[in-house]
Amino acid sequence: MEKKKNNFLIHGGILAMAGIIVRIIGMLYRIPVVNIIGSEGNGIYGIAFNVYNIMLVLSSYGLPMAVSKLVSQRFAEGKYKNAKRIFKYSLTIGIVTGGIAAALVFFGADFIENVIYSGNTPGLAIPLRILAPTIFFVAVLGVIRGFFQGQGTMIPTAVSQIIEQIVNAIVSIGAGYILMQSFKESANQSAYGAAGSTLGTALGALSALIFMIFLYFVYKPQFKKLLRKDTKADRVPASNMYKIIITTMIPIILGQTFYQISSVFDDILFSNLSSTVIDSVTIDLGTYSSCFILLIGIPQGVASAMSASMLPAMVTSFTEKDIDGVRTKLTKTIKTNLFIAIPSFIGLAVLGQGIIKILFSSYNSAEGATMLKIGAVSVVFFTLSTVTSSALQAIDKMKMPVYHSAISLVIHIVLVYFMLRFTSLGIYGLVIGSTLFPLVVFILNLKTLYQEINYRFSIKKIVLKPLISAIIMGVCIAVVYNGLLILTESNIVSMFFALVVAAITYFGPYYLLTKHSNL
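Structure (tokenized):
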């Protein structure tokens, strides 16, 4: 029984591991891509991707979690026929919304470049048009992933994510190089290089979609057996089913929309308020998107994976009115996430410059390292906000993360505007803003969870053990890395031994604290 209760942690771990692999592949292939398309091309790519993300969120982001939540509820109740209809109608919604959003980006690319971004990012329309079909692919893909996740298995999603990223990496490098060479005489050469990277995104999503469709047809005979067990007639009208799906997905979409809008507003505000020349604006944004956003995204992916795994498990407990089970699963998920997030934050803050020198040699490693020193703690805040938002969705408080994200967005925009307009912080203003956004959401989420299910966040039981271990690790790796750098003058050698020491000095103290303390 205990093994079954902890099954969501196992599947969450599988999805988290896949997420880490995906992000490592993403980080590694960005190295040659950045060198091929240059800092300016990468800046254009980052802006295009933010636009793509916001359209993706608006059109279909909520579908995987909505389908997962609704399917898990019906499986817990043995309503398999109803679960099938949820899947069928969700596919229809994904096709329609994904198709409309893809068309808007494709045909509105020039408007986005010239009006929304005031022409300060020349050639932005080129990668946007390449990205547009991806929105449709991902919308349909998300529904199928949500269907499997709702049944408590994260393996199909994990495998499809790895396939998607491998294809993405190969095509991005190849297409980026070919387009840069083909348009070397063009004023928009960097934009065409960025388009090569976005082509990788598109074909990667298409490959994952084909794999998931294949997997569904393999699973279909087994699902039919479950349908035969459900002897009750399913008389819920189609209109009601659509309403249930839409009202479930809209709060999820809105909550994430505010987070993505913050990134788009950051780009727009920085492009329009920065006192530097246009090329410097693009390069600074490229450094921000690669040296900061990309690196912190690796541990952040664990939180997203564990939240996706936790959701159906918590929904099942909540459906069965097992509130103790809900609180227990939430605490386990937070502890598992912080076990990775806290040392990741310390490690990025201490070793940031060395990591950037190895991975992104063409960037200003000092600037990137400063970004990580200021904002690496956002890994922890993002983890806490993501998990607690999923918990609120699981207990049918779907609107609360939306309200909390909206409040945080207003604070974020005002703060970033003030820092860009009235201080000399420059790009570091975006780092500070992106760090505080998830912190505000987490604080508000925690307050609601306490009010609704009497959930108490124990800093002593949840935070202290990984934090103490990570601080010990941070001191040790700082001494080892800087000492070896002086002695060997080799960044790679110093980084290798620092990482070995990091593993020993984090897991060692953590084990001792587990065995010999009540933390």
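The first helix runs from residue 2 to 5. Residues 334 and 515 are 20 Å apart (CA to CA).
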